[in-house]
């Protein structure tokens, strides 16, 4: 959401509180805005509606964590989806190419594990343990409800070799939603390795 959505959002949350017979305080509004502002207003509105008719929890006033869970799914579910995306990218793209995912937490978790090249060197025997480590790291970051500092892309073997030889850097393969992956590149802690003036960057759609 953006700042112009604040009034609509606060009105929505106040209506939800009134529905449950509770008073909506300024403090509650501050907490709700901090928790929800990274989501789309329409999606938040829909999540509140789904909570209210949930047969298991709908009788209780929702907390921010309830709505975040509804919007994102559990951290375990999210980690499994993220690992599936990484696994398929390793097998279809490989460690030679530099990659950029559409999820910055994937970048951070893989950087913590040694990077894209190191991941590509793991054996099939090691793979289940790698998956478990990734999921644990991913869940840890995801549970904080904030995006950690992360590298804009994950360098592959070709980029490492080019850097050693003083050659130009290859554009990364965009994994998942190309536009979101480009935003991940721009938001990284280092300069993006992609030239945004050239839309011909490689893209791999992995849901």
Question: How would you characterize the overall build of this protein?
Answer:
It is a single chain. With 207 residues, the protein is mostly helical. The protein has 2 domains: 3-72; 75-204, no CATH class. The protein contains 10 helices and 3 strands; from the N terminus they run αααααβααααβαβ. It has helices at 6-19, 26-36, 41-52, 64-72, 75-92, 104-112, 116-120, 127-142, 157-165, 178-187; strands at 99-101, 173-175, 203-204. The protein has a 3-stranded parallel sheet with strand order 1-2-3. Helix 10 (178-187) links the parallel strand 2 and strand 3 (203-204). Helix 3 (41-52) packs across helix 4 and helix 5 (75-92) crosses helix 8 (127-142). The longest helix is centred in the middle third of the chain and has 18 residues, at 75-92. It is elongated, with a radius of gyration of 20 Å. The two termini are 24 Å apart.
User: Please, what is the average pLDDT?
Assistant: 86
Radius of gyration, taken over Cα atoms and rounded to an integer in Å: 20 Å
Number of domains: 2
Q: Could you give the order of strands across the largest sheet?
A: 1-2-3
Number of strands: 3
Order of helices and strands: HHHHHEHHHHEHE
Helix content: 40-55%
- Enumerate how many helices there are, as a single number: 10
Biggest sheet features: 3 strands, parallel
**What oligomeric assembly is this protein in?**
single chain
Helix-strand category: mainly alpha
The proportion of strand residues reads: under 5%
Backbone shape: elongated
Low-confidence stretches: 191-203
From the N-terminal CA to the C-terminal CA, the straight-line distance is: 24 Å
